[in-house]
User: Fold this.
Amino acid sequence: MLFQTSLGIDIQDHSVLFAYLKASFKGIRLAAHAAYPLEEEIPLKEKVDRIGGLVRDFLRKNSISPAAVFLGMPRDAAIFRYVQFPLAVKENLRDSLGYEMEKYIPLPGDDIYFDYQIVAEDKETGILRLLLVAAKKETVDLYLNLATHIGVGISGIEIGSTALANYFSNQGDSDGTGTCAVVCLRDDHLELDGLKAGFLDYSRSVDRGEWGDNLSGFISRELERWKGGLEESEGRLPTLFCGFDAEPECVDYFRADERLDIRLVDLSRSGLSSPAMIPAYGLALKGIRKQQTGINLAPKEHRKRPNKAGYYAMVALAGLLVVLALAWGGGSIISQQLNLRRLNAEIIRLGVEVKNIEQTRTRCGEVEDRIDYLSRLFGTGAPLLNVLKDLSERIPKTAWVTNFTFSDGEVKINGRADASSELIPSLESSPLFSEVAFISSITRGKTGKEIFRIGLKVTK
Assistant:
């Protein structure tokens, strides 16, 4: 679950180990961890008192307040069994286990706490295979008393083997979540666990005295025993070794076994400093997300209720994200509507201007038609306006035209001038005129001005 925090406390005979995890969008992160030694000789009750002080010290040093706290007991503090029940009793499985508990656990039912998990369900044969874990109440109660020492409720209690199985089921392909064996050397005992599809399918813990001087032979026999019970026994069995730094020759011994695929535990992904921290990490994982192996020996009435602050924060953030998305989307739509209105108004305005331009263009066309009509009114030669323009430019200001005719490309002009002879060369210089000549003799009027008549042709 996002934004959750969880503390795993693995309590062993010789040590207590802490792993504090945080969950975020980037995944699960190891925020703090520590290991403290314990004196094996002191009674468990005194150990619990000392552990309470260590927990408070760890929380204070790291300034943390975990949402969930899970405790791990030594493997030999609990009884571990695989049992079978008819599929028909699945709905009332806990009650059925309570009735027949003494068949599997050599203790009175009133003196133990127990939990179970369905490992396999075969509908064809109608059989349920269960993992059953039980521990004495007096032992579990000592761990429950830690809540009064540390001021933080206990979310669950389980054995280190189930926590170790959960750790490896979360590691993905780097370590293997299918069928694999885990051989873990811890303090003065050896733990062998078999995982199948992420579940703890086999578990055994033995003291150093049981294997004597032949640790490799003992491990080989145990692995062969579990491998022989698997339905798919062919192929090399992935086998993970952890805690064998002091005895590397044992791992080298198994590398030569072609039946085993030997792998060393890679701690780089989890950030742990030692394989001994793996169970504590696996315990803390239960406060972050649901795990494959869900054993919890703490009675329900003593379990701390799950802190859903992270869940509520995630829901609140999701709601805020939805609101922001709607606001952004609504704002975008409103902005688009406003832009559309502005565009429509601009289109209407431009439409009016286009209409005005079209009207102006129509009027220009009409004017051009009229000019063309006037230009060609007296013939098919040069335009009349060009003739008039050229005459006005070449006739000096001291002369003026009193009569003008334009027909079939010929122009005749009558007028008065101070010196009529100057008109001929001026008109001949025009590229528009040719054959410029007087068409009558020059006479002088009453005003002293010369009266002239000139004829010329307009070049086509």
